[in-house]
Specification:
Blueprint lengths: L2 E2 L2 E2 L4 H4 L9 H25 L3 H28 L6 H7 L11 H8 L6 H25 L3 H30 L1
Antiparallel strand pairs: 1-2
Helix pairs in contact: 2-3, 2-7, 3-6, 6-7
Length: 178
């Protein structure tokens, strides 16, 4: 088990690579990514409910909102790539949010890390760790993919994760100035 700044980063086989066969169509990847974003958003919402102070709760709320934006972007990408796309309810029925970004379940992560998520800085550190793992996960997915279109899509999602890391880094920098 690997730990980083008091947070456990353990997850199922190869941080979620077990979720891929390697021959997925872009629509399948979008659905998988949507589920990972949804799982992380559910985690942030659950942590907001148990946050020890309003500032930490506000950060969890902000992070949950970012994940909701990611989901919307993925759904719009899905619509653009599919000649006969599913409507939102049918699309949502295909999504599983068992795993968060980073490739582990929300329950596993909460059970292992809740004591280390009490301050704003700890929350931001954790969010940066998860986004870094998501970047790694999508990059690994791209390397495993046999379809060029899917590989390109995964690398685009990885670049989005880089942007999220940058945004979280700015939040952490602001927190350190306090």
């Amino acid at each position: 088990m690997r730990a980083w700044q008091g947070l456990s980063a353990a997850g199922p086989a190869e941080m979620g690579l077990v979720l891929l066969r390697g021959d997925e169509h872009p629509a399948e990847i979008i659905i998988l990514a949507y589920g990972l974003e949804q799982g992380l958003g559910e985690f942030y919402t659950a942590m907001k409910a148990v946050a020890e102070n309003s500032a930490t709760a506000a950060i969890f709320d902000l992070l949950a909102g970012i994940e909701a934006q990611h989901k919307e972007k993925l759904y719009q990408l899905y619509l653009a790539l599919n000649p006969a796309p599913l409507d939102r309810p049918a699309f949502a029925a295909k999504v599983t949010s068992q795993y968060m970004e980073g490739g582990f379940t929300t329950e596993e992560f909460v059970a292992q890390n809740r004591p280390a998520l009490q301050t704003d800085r700890q929350v931001l550190d954790m969010a940066m760790m998860l986004e870094a793992q998501a970047l790694d996960l999508y990059t690994r997915y791209a390397a495993k993919s046999a379809h060029e279109e899917t590989k390109t899509l995964l690398l685009d999602i990885a670049n989005e994760e880089k942007a999220h890391l940058k945004r979280l880094g700015a939040l952490l920098e602001d927190e350190l100035k306090k």
